[in-house]
Amino acid sequence: MEVKDISGVMPTDSGVLSQMGSMGHEQVLFCQDKEVGLKAIIAVHNTVCGPSLGGTRMWNYASDEEALQDVLRLSRGMTYKNAISGLDLGGGKAVIIGDSRKDKSEALMRRFGQFVDSLGGKYITAEDVGISPQDMSWVAMETKHVAGLPGKSGDPSPVTAYGVYMGMKASAKVQFGSDSLAGKKVAVQGVGHVGEYLLGYLQKEGAEIYISDIHEETLNRVSREYGASVVGLDAIYDIDMDIYAPCALGATVNDDTLRRLKCSIIAGAANNQLANELVHGEMVIEKGMIYAPDYLINAGGVMNCAGEVYNIDNDEVMSMAENIYNTTLAIIIKSREEGIPSYLAANIMAEERIAGLKKDKK
Ligand code: NAD
Q: What tens digit of pLDDT does each residue of 276-302 get?
């Protein structure tokens, strides 16, 4: 299997089938219903590991091409995330084109649910940006291929935080010779859903915690509750720390911050942390840092969904998240042995799992 930069996007001028071909998509469904105002695209990237699972995003895209690029890129990302996590799930994603504050209705969501259903289970949907549990309940009136419903698997953040914590400990094991975080200076950027649960684990282990957030109130409360020191939004990149945990924004590992960061581990929940995988993946190695691949260590959320799809109980979902420790270790070791960036080692391992399963199925 050819190794690709999975963060990249395709030039907009190539046709849909050639974009699908070069990114390896199996199927793309364009959905339209003028009466209810629905315009959506469902992309099934790969179903070798199992039915494709990924959220539905509602966004006011500037053009249909932009929506197509997003859904193709995000669905491919889900294939890698689900494969590296050992789930019996492939990768898919859907986008609904529109303003989630103004354009949503029961009729629109139910019509979308009918399109999901028309794929016969090849695509399982869930919430993403712009979609609420209520919206998913409407989708669920038309199809059973939905996860993340109210009263089911619930908030994925605790599982996500546990996986991030496991990835952080595995990185510490390699970098410091011990996976204990006691006394380690950890800077958590963003103390929202995942960040706060992560603080609980860090506090319990006796880490020295630094936090930043744009939300003053949250910052003050969380700082008191977890004994964390507050640092400025930009100052977080300059403090003396062992571990940087981005739990808010993507692309914070870039030319500027890599010149400033003094940490030896980067491990957090945010998606797409490396601004440019090809450039910053290498820079991280040159600086002697370990980067725990984001899509691997934040996979607790999708494990939570998988639990709902396959009726797996909470304890088992948590032990799946615990296994992120072993996978992170394996990836860091592969990255060091082969002298390749950790994100690439993760991509290769995901591709090997898919290729192996494909061979077995033949
Ligand atoms: P959230 O919105 O609850 O928390 C994000 C926090 O970051 C908020 O408190 C926000 O005020 C803060 N923030 C925003 N801009 C900031 C900045 N410039 N500096 C510092 N803080 C800033 O989101 P979440 O659910 O905790 O998710 C955190 C990240 O992890 C997101 O990038 C998300 O995509 C990713 N993620 C989350 C899950 C999950 O299960 N929730 C799963 C996988 C990935």
A: 999 999 999 999 999 999 999 999 999
Q: Is residue 213 part of a domain?
A: yes
C-alpha 51/C-alpha 124 separation (Å) is 7
CA-nearest residue, atom 20 of ligand 1: 213
pLDDT tens per residue across span 196-245: 999 999 999 999 999 999 999 999 999 999 999 999 999 999 999 999 99
Q: Given the CA of residue 301, which atom of ligand 1 is nearest to it?
A: 40
Token pair belonging to 14: 């190539």
Regarding whether 307 and 211 lie in a shared domain, the answer is: yes
**Same-domain pairing of 43 and 163:** no
> What lines the ligand 1 site, CB under 6 Å?
156-157, 160, 189-195, 212-215, 218, 233, 247-249, 269-271, 298, 301
Going by their DSSP bridges, the two strands 265-266 and 243-246 should be labelled as parallel
271 CA from centroid of ligand 1 (Å) = 9
Residues marked active site are found at 93
**More confident call, 150 vs 272:** 272
What global pTM score does this model have? 0.91
- Please tell me the distance between residue 279's alpha carbon and the centre of ligand 1 in angstroms: 24
Q: How far apart are CA 160 and CA 320, in angstroms?
A: 11
Do 189 and 100 reside in the same domain of the chain?
no
User: 300-309 vs 64-84: helix axis angle to the nearest 10?
Assistant: 80
CATH code, domain with 49: 3.40.50.10860
Whole-number CA gyration radius for the chain: 20
- Categorize the per-residue pLDDT at 362 as very low, low, confident or very high, splitting at 50, 70 and 90: low
In testing the pocket of ligand 1, which one of 298, 304, 320 has its CB within 8 Å of the most ligand atoms? 298
Q: Could you tell me if 172 and 302 lie in one domain?
A: yes
Give the distance, in angstroms, between the CA of residue 342 and the centroid of all CA atoms in the same chain: 16
* 151 lies in some domain: no
User: How far, in Å, is the centroid of ligand 1 from the Cα of 13?
Assistant: 33
